Amino acid sequence: MALPIPHDELFDYLVPEGLDVGVGHRVQVPLGKRAAWGIVVELLPAPTREGLQLRPLLRSAGPALPPWGIDLVAAVARRAHVTLGLALAQTVPTPARLRAGTLGLALSPADVNKALEEMRRRAPRQAAVLALVAEGRSWEELRTVRGAPSALRALVRKGFLQPSFLPFAYREERPPPSLNHEQGQALEQVLGLVGEGKTCLLFGPPASGKTEVYLEAARAVAEERRSAVLLEPEVSLLPQLWARARGRLGFDPYAYHGGLAPGARWQAWEAALHGRLRCAVGTRSAVFLPARDLGLVVVDEESEPAYKQDERAPYYHAREVAQDRARIQGCAVLLGSAAPAVTTFHRAEIGEIGLLKLQERWGGAPPQVRAVPKSGKILGAELQEAIRRHLDHGGQVLLFLNRLGFFTGAICRGCHSLLRCPSCALGLVYHRNRGFICHACGYSVAHPRCPTCGGDRFRLFGLGTERVEHEVKRCFPGTPVARLDSSTSRDAGGILAAVARGEVRILVGTQMIGKGLDFPGITLVGIIDADLLLGRPDYRGAERTYQVIVAAAGRAGRGTARGEVLVQTDQPDYYPIRHALTGNYGAFYQEELNYRRTLRYPPFAQLVRLVAEGPQGPQRLEKVGRAVARPGVEVLGPSPLLPRRGIPRAQLLLRGDKDLPRLLHELLPLAPTWLRVDPDPLTFW
DNA sequence: AGCACGCCGACT
DNA sequence: GTCGGCGTGCTC
After folding, report:
1. Contact A294, A226 (CB under 8 A)
2. Is there a single domain that holds both residue A488 and residue A506?
């Protein structure tokens, strides 16, 4: 058995007579004075060691994952220096009853009206509830309707709603256009990789029709009775993909992501386990779905950092896990991007993975992109002029800023110290309706006092989406404005529906709206501050800047009218911004690669980040560093980090060549509980 | 990770 | 004399 404890050995138990237990089953066992659930890893005729006092297992909950799923999670656990049992506990969901509140619409808007018409007389309550769901109302609003739970159950039974949480309602699929020559060739190549266990990069600018290739590939795979898993970096991108996949495949794909209620999550997992899952759309955790006969995994926007799990162990990257699956199951892996990670493009360049290019843009000319000075304003003169012009011509405007809140910092007027979270030391961000909030731990305070001098007067500074929204409303009174970021995402369905209907003229948001959205009415995209990502302690700052600009720009002009993109920046000549303006990835890649080579960053070196928690962190890391240090392995640090939830932290960066993971594994087969091992880190704070 | 044991300091 | 702080060690 693999048990969810930080002890790197498997445990032997006796199987009681008459109990059906197999590899991959979830089983409860006595462990010391308690009972623990674990996964059966092996069935043996005799104990692994002499002298073990075996205890019988208590009960079984049946299959939890197939035997090869254990190998998959074992590969992940090994890279992150976590025990197999703990990694399994993090990646395999537990059976749970299906809960209400996680229902999505399974009908097109036209069918909804038909259904409402039919139900109005015989089942008025169901009709009322269905109408609310169709409007994208939240569960909180639904429960005010009397009898909502039973109406929901009936609607599920009739197949009008399906128990998969999708954050906004079904959107009508436009009729599938036929693939152009390039796309057809790409599709053929991808299908040739099915069964080969090979990975391929699909490189094409925004609106070059990458999604069409994914969908056609998924359909071809499903027709061969194999399964496909399509990954998006964020939940907000799933409804659109789900709807398009549904239209293309002719059956309902499953949805799988971290926001699912336990019941819905287990439902999709179990479907995969029993071979009923033919297609799934999901976020990074969906890469573990134990789909049988897997033919294809698509990682859309493969460079998005959201694919990296970096809040709790095991630290993994869905792109790497997808390739583990290719190795184990022989499926094809398709990595899609308009601005690939430099490391991924490098792998394609040296022939480690395949490369497919799409060059033609679908429908219409590419947007006109230009840089304009920030000039210390939220909305500079050029951006204001452009907004007015596009509004006058009936267009919609999208304003993008990668930061939440109203003011993003507060400084004490008495002693000039920054107002920080008492347990994380991170600067508190002022939100207009919730006061000062720590974005790391959620601590909030309405009327803060300076911890240094006791003062209660602060100078507020910095710019977040709330303040952009406020400024837009001030400059364009009477224009309908909406804001979409993680603090308003509960109403994402309603907000995006209003954008689709053209009722919202200006949409302000964070990265949630920066990629993937496909609204033909949006003709102008404004990037409020393109310099934001450059100041971070992160070797990928330039890459992220290039990617964010290209992705946000890709939201403009997806309809018939030509799009325009304004990038507010004070460094228009800095290479990531300069090349992003012209969309010249090749030029950006060459400059960035030179920089990476000079400073010995990936792909020219392998990084591993060790984070120690607790007051002895630095000393302990010092010891680890001395043990690892050798020719070819650079030890950077230890250096202190901001505390998290009051726990002091320190980090050690290791830099070496491809052998670093193996070396580290010899020295540190398993990380002690105070240490977190993050292979290929993306964040450094 | 839990959970118990065990060894010290503070309080009835 | 007892309660409870958390360092240490074990779990088939």
Report:
1. yes
2. yes
- Strand runs labelled E in A346-480: 354-357, 368-372, 396-400, 409-412, 429-431, 435-437, 444-445, 458-461
Burial of A574 (0-12, 13-18, 19+ CB in 10 A): middle
Rg of chain A over Cα atoms, rounded to whole angstroms, equals 26
Q: Give one DSSP letter per residue of A524-536, joined into a string.
A: EEEES-TTGGGGS
- Please give the C-alpha separations between residue A383 and each of A503, A528, A540, in angstroms, as whole numbers: 21, 9, 28
Instruction: Kindly report, residue by residue over A74-111, the tens digit of the pLDDT.
Output: 999 999 999 999 999 999 998 875 443 455 666 665 67
A204 and A346 share a domain? yes
Asked whether residue A399 falls in the same domain as residue A416, the answer is no
Q: How far apart are the first and last CA of chain A?
A: 36
Instruction: Show residues, CB within 7 A, near nucleic chain B.
Output: A 4-7, 32-34, 673
Could you tell me if A619 and A670 lie in one domain?
yes
Side-chain half-sphere exposure of A285, counting CA atoms within 13 A: 21
Structural domain contains residue A16: no
CATH number, residue A624: 3.30.70.600
Statement to judge: residues A236 and A302 lie in one domain: yes
Residue A99 backbone phi and psi in degrees, to 5: -110, 155
Whether residue A591 lies inside any domain: the answer is: yes
- Locate tokens 């493009």: which residue? A345
* Contact between the CB of A13 and strand C at under 7 Å: yes
Whether A581 and A473 map to the same domain: the answer is yes
Q: Which two tokens stand for residue A654?
A: 């290791």
Question: Does residue A524 fall inside a structural domain?
Answer: yes
Amino acid at position A682, single letter = L
pLDDT, tens digit (0-9, with 9 covering 90-100), for A586-633: 999 999 999 999 999 999 999 999 998 877 788 888 888 888 888 889
Tell me the pTM: 0.86
What is the spatial distance between Cα A136 and Cα A577, in angstroms, rounded to a whole number? Answer: 38
Averaged pLDDT for residues A64-69: 96
Spanning CA of A423 to C1' of B12, the rounded length in angstroms is 36
A12 touches strand C (CB under 7 A): yes
pLDDT at A167: 44
Domain coverage including residue A395: 368-403+464-597
Residue A37, both tokens: 């659930």
Helices A124-134 and A148-157, packing angle to 10 deg: 80
- Residue A30 (CA) to nucleotide B4 (C1'), in angstroms, measures 16
Asked whether residue A660 is assigned to any structural domain, the reply reads yes
Bin A259: left if φ > 0, else alpha if -120 < ψ < 50, else beta: alpha
One domain for residues A41 and A151: no
Q: Whole-angstrom Cα distance, residue A138 to residue A169?
A: 11
Residue nearest to nucleotide B3 (CA to C1'): A33
Please report, rounded to whole angstroms, the spatial distance between the CA atom of protein residue A90 and the C1' atom of nucleotide B6.
34
CA A198, CA A326: separation in Å to the nearest integer? 6
Nearest nucleotide to A54 (CA to C1') is C12
What long-range pairs does A468-472 form, CB within 8 A, spacing at least 24?
A: A468/A378, A468/A379, A468/A399, A468/A401, A468/A508, A468/A528, A469/A508, A470/A406, A470/A432, A471/A378, A471/A379, A472/A379, A472/A387, A472/A399, A472/A506, A472/A508
Q: Are A69 and A77 in contact (CB under 8 A)?
A: no
Q: Which residue is nearest to nucleotide B1 (CA to C1')?
A: A5
Is the CB of residue A495 less than 8 Å from the CB of residue A481?
no
